[in-house]
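Dissemination and training. As part of the outreach component of the grant, students in the summer workshop were shown how a complex can be specified as a set of sequence lines and then modelled as a single object. The example used during the hands-on session is reproduced here so that future cohorts can follow it. Participants entered these lines:
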Amino acid sequence: MLAEILTIGDELLTGNTVDSNSAYIAQKLTEKGYWVKRKTTVGDDVEEIKTVVREILDRKPEILIISGGLGPTHDDVTMLAIAEALNLELELNENALKRIEEFYKDLYKKGLIDDPTLNEARKKMAYLPKGAELLENTVGAAPGAYIKLENTKIFVLPGMPREMKAMLENEVLPRIGEKKFIQKKLLAEITDESKLAPILSETLQRFNVKIHSSPKGFGKYIGVIIFGENEETIEKAKKFMEEKGIQFEEGW
Amino acid sequence: MLAEILTIGDELLTGNTVDSNSAYIAQKLTEKGYWVKRKTTVGDDVEEIKTVVREILDRKPEILIISGGLGPTHDDVTMLAIAEALNLELELNENALKRIEEFYKDLYKKGLIDDPTLNEARKKMAYLPKGAELLENTVGAAPGAYIKLENTKIFVLPGMPREMKAMLENEVLPRIGEKKFIQKKLLAEITDESKLAPILSETLQRFNVKIHSSPKGFGKYIGVIIFGENEETIEKAKKFMEEKGIQFEEGW
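and obtained this result:
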């Protein structure tokens, strides 16, 4: 159940934009039972994207979610780079073209743009890697793509958070199966994290759980997240820690 | 002038925390003239960290900044993993030990913790890879490390944003040289991004600049960032674009 996330955009590498997309995607994948092993961010550069996509596929994650670089400008090169990484051709998707045309006509009617013409820049967004399934963008122009390889399901989503979230919800999550892994966030009332360490270690040895802890300020609380395959396992681990003297509250 | 950033922490891979650290670091590196080529995030896992550190070093960036996993708990394994990746031993740094001891004594005096003892978990933070230079943590317990390899300067910083920022400012930036690259953020008054595309392409061909554009909403503005080695080059590129009919305003 391993997954990886790749976010693409020069603005993420200059620090002009904080990559909240990958956290959002990670959260949804975690809820679905996937373990996100790695997140990577590269710029809007064909060679760089090709390289990193191939590296990720070599690690054979079950899911790869890619976000960013699907727009109409010179630096939106994600679909091209993915096609090249997979040795696929880019192919005009007539369905996508029709939707893009409708999208701009609609914006024109609303008085939001001056010109509804399907120019080259807009048309570019209708090209998907050959064999890819179109993922609908219900709130923007650029469609996404779903490519199923032998080992990996690849989903290519836009970078605009509103568009990415809608596509993730409507098009991606239904394709990746049922919820399998759950997490419980707790606050441990303990004065410092180093006291918690030996208890956590013992819990990890005894139960089939993963635990993350992070300080929430000295003299107050330590945030603890217990991950497990079901409520029961998590409750057992929690109870064991309580017996060792840790007092928990729910929530962060 | 290539740089890479590696952030470490399970909380980043479960989406419980948005990785604002890497954006902050990226921004500071960009201001210093570095081109951040890639950002990677992995969990608190020795093997995973080792693997990715070796991969990054193979790409020979001039700077590698690593953040996260320096605390006292079981899942803080960054220093150990880096030492293993570089085939170095972990060595108790007496200076670090003294500072950590003082840090907890001070918290104890302030009534923030119950026990000032230097237990094993706290002592763990005083171990640095052999030969590493200590980076002072002025606001927390865990010291950072600076390791100079033949090709790459590696800086290891805490993950708590307040501690990371202070260490970056006081200990890292003075070690990586003068400002060399600048960026100008502008707003282009143009109704949609696809109109801008051919003008951007022509500008990129003519001038030694990089340009990033991102829509700021339909019918309003498109954000444009021009990167160049000096004001003059940026101004020339900007002027060229204005002659092609783009009207700019400053700021986002």
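Chain A has two domains: 2-175, 182-250. Students were then asked to discuss how this feature might be tested experimentally.
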